[in-house]
User: Fold these one by one.
Assistant:
Number 1:
Amino acid sequence: VHQSKLDFFCKLGYGKQDICKVLENLGQEALEDDVLKELIRMGSKPQALESQAQPSPLKLVARGSCSTSPASKWLGEDDSDSTDHLRPIVIDGSNVAMSHGNKEVFSCWGIQLAVDWFRERGHTYIKVFVPLWRKEPPRQDSPIADQHILEELEKQSILVYTPSRKVKGKRVVCYDDRYIVKVAYEKDGVIVSNDHYRDLQNENPEWKWFIEQRLLMYSFVSNRFMPPDDPLGRHGPTLNNFLSKKPVLPEPKWQPCPYGKKCTYGNKCKFYHPERPHQAQLSVADELRAKIKVPLSLGKEEKCNRSP
């Protein structure tokens, strides 16, 4: 029991010393929810967050060095932070699997489709939470399809089972939604689910804001995982900006000039002129002066050539 709990919290990123201290205080039979609350109360953070909070020391570079590494690397920033600009992904495995199975079958293939979609985008941190009792053989009241996918994702350290046990023949299941929201909140990531977690929103005001702003809904269209292009509505960020730590501002779209080539405003015109995209927008008077100066300069050159 001690080893299983130790492995479980190590997967979440907590240190072994902090876990052992909490288990000594609470006892080996303590529930995982109580252990997690005690770790948060102690101020313990996952190793990934600690590495972000503690910048590495500055590195001195010799003058004239031919090193091609960017300045951000020797100014003390972590390499993983400079390259990985995408947010961590936390997937509600039960919600995704039941949605792919039309709410009748726990389809593990739907989880695989979602994981593959985020992998292709380049996300490196992907976690899927599924209750532990889904490891058991399927029954008529809870059918499971493609159960071997869960084992493969667990070997890849992507899938995490939320704990459950049997007491006097009855199954005691921990609330997996709380794990999902806690990990996503600590990692400052994105929750992939069609559930609104209203009970958890009422439980914590910080979670309420986080769920409203970081919940990514989805649909399955012909075995294709499809999140919306506008996760927060028409006036919200695009999907690329929603999944990125550093959003990119869209380029301004210029409105074409209603007068077209007949426009006399020149460089003072605030509209776009497609007929002169690579030319400076000169006024009509400046264009006439430029045309007049060219033949005058040519005449002066001819006179200078004839004089000697």
Number 2:
Amino acid sequence: IKPKVTMIAWNQNDNYVVTATNNHLLKVWNSYTGQLLHELVGHTDEVFVLETHPFDSRVMLSAGHDGKIFIWDITKGTKTKDYFNMIEGQGHGAVFDCKFSPDGQHIACTDSYGHLLILGFGSSTAYEKIPDQMFFHTDYRPLIRDSNDYVLDEQTQQAPHLMSPPFLVDEDGNPYPPTYQRLVPGRENCADEYLIPQLGYVATSDGEVVEQVIGEQAVDQDEEALDPSVLDGMMRQLQQQDQRTEADEESSSNGPPAEEGTARRG
């Protein structure tokens, strides 16, 4: 079988070119002469991820559908580190994409099961505040098109980008407590009552009725009146001013002529 190139990447200073082929080999070439320098052996399935280190020209990362992630020293043609993405009870997960952090100390990867893998040096305490499963309640919401062929959310009849920030739920659609909801962009400074979603029963495409997040809890009108926005207040003032103007004009047209020196609203 004639090998086919699946990926190609230059290293940080462009002195080397690394190619991945469908026979699971990685080859390191001199970018100026085209000379083959090294063959990197380790992958057992096709490789679709080749990433160069942000500032170390010796380092290259590869990842593939075999669930393996390798860190290579391409100047020596040797493997430095490796990781196997084994998922308990399900086998390995194919790695679809990887990126280095700007400081070169961490790697973020995504796999075929929807996992985000963060590999690197240091402590993991910074990531312990987030839940293991993170979905928005609108992720699998059906969409429709209006008469102008614009996309709308089927349930709210709104354009998706105009909807309120979604709620954070687990893979079964169960919402997380308010401390986690504040991790959602747009809900960082919300009061607790805006972080508790409204639940309701919804029929799925299979006909099964399940309890899901419908949207935000309805806010009491009395509570809403206690905290009016600046814009609402300005609108009310303008309406009151217009009403007073109309009343003054009506009284001046029906009543006796005003005496000289009496102030009258125009």
Number 3:
Amino acid sequence: FPQVYRGSVKDFPGFDASQDAEALYNAMKGFGSDKDAILDLITSRSNKQRVEICQAYKSQYGKDLIADLKYELTGKFERLIVSLMRPPAYSDAKEIKDAIAGIGTDEKCLIEILASRTNQEIHDLVAAYKDAYERDLEADVVGDTSGHFKKMLVVLLQVHLHPTRALPPSPSHKDLLEAGELKWGTDEAQFIYILGRRSKQHLRLVFDEYLKISGKPIERTIRGELSGDFEKLMLAVVKCIRSTAEYFAERLYKAMKGLGTRDNTLIRIMVSRSEIDMLDIREVFRTKYEKSLYNMIKEDTSGEYKKALLKLCGGDDE
């Protein structure tokens, strides 16, 4: 079956990179910038087209479009627009670099990216990180994390080296039972080995079988047997195996509910999923939280930042 496109942002018909470059140049020249013009143009082009606009801008004006946008815009709106201009792998690389730079680590960001990306996306991320920062991503992650959390992140980073590593079906559900439920103390290495190195299809069968045998979902065992960031990472891996769209719907809801908005999370997800599965995320969101993603963004954000997020959302499901 042909894959049905589930993103909210599509290629702009009749696209002309040099015309768009000129429009952006004009929107930024002189005193103050035309933020609405910048917003409308950038959110209605696909990532591939935005990359071409950057190239056209460079050859027409000898300037770096991303640098100019950073100079002209501010705050959350600037972060969102600049994220849209980077190819996905470079956007992920920047997020991870920020997550491990300086004192302290943003574990939630590491978990979200490394638990949810496909083998190919991880492969591209590792290459983009090397290209952008002349550093080895795995070495940087190892240097910044510890324990079983670190071991699992390394497994997730290495899977792309062996995409065929989806091992043939084996009694993994029994292995998981023995690693957790039936064991005095937990064999974390076994959890890492099974959840980190098998295909999604295989693991879904394992989870079903596990439920039959133990009478409880694997998530409950993970909560009971593991702890801290390692537990959060394993739960994220399981959620993404079951449904990536549901995982992201939940992340978006948590980023906006209650007081204050976790804007970095909101921006990262809206940008990274706008050309992958935003329509699926919206559908799950509507069912799960009985309100549309569009409405929640509308109530929770403001100004140009809000307008840009709503464009990426692509429509209201109320």
